[in-house]
Amino acid sequence: MTQVLVLNGPNLGRLGVREPEIYGHASMADLERAAAGWGSELSLDVAVRQTDDESELVGWLHGAVDARAHVVLNPAAFTHYSYALRDAAAQVTSSGLLLVEVHLSNPAARESFRHYSVVAGIATGTVAGFGFDSYRLALGAIARKLRG
Ligand code: DQA
Fold first, then answer.
1. CATH of the domain at 56
2. 101: CA distance to ligand 1 center in Å?
3. Is the pTM for the entire model greater than 0.85?
4. How high is the mean pLDDT of the chain?
5. Residue 97 — φ and ψ, nearest 5°?
6. 77 lines ligand 1 (CB under 6 A)
7. pLDDT for 20-55, tens place per residue?
8. Which of 56, 103, 114, 126 has the fewest other C-beta atoms within 10 Å?
9. Distance between CA 62 and CA 59 in Å, rounded?
10. Interior/surface letters 54-90, b for 16+ CB within 10 angstroms, e for the rest
11. Would the CB of 107 count as within 6 Å of ligand 1?
């Protein structure tokens, strides 16, 4: 089955308690459960991971390339400044795999430091502003694109 890694960056492990007016009341465990359901509907083997550590996230992207896994990536704050993450994400798309950047909120409608994504330019596409639905839409887009 086609493998998709759903990778989440810093502070997303605090979903549910972190600024719920922006990020909602559901937790990372809720996202894991929801993503497993969407995966089985779409015939994708989905694994959800979260880390606060930049080097761990870079390592997971390297692992995606080696395992030929597609990626849904919420880089969180790394979105806005991590060239290391951008370069690792670029290896995913340049090896012919899909990488969809996702955000729960719509960074373009928030503080100006969130308006720029260093990842967007190498991503297959971006989905932002729909809460957990951003992930569902990203997985659906991957499934459709793979069907051709
Ligand atoms: C976020 C948006 C980022 O600006 C922020 O740093 C996050 C979460 C989102 O999902 O809306 O941590 O990626």
1. 3.40.50.9100
2. 11
3. yes
4. 98
5. -90, 160
6. yes
7. 999 999 999 999 999 999 999 999 999 999 999 999
8. 56
9. 5
10. beebbebbeebbeeebbbbbbbbebbbebeebbebbb
11. yes
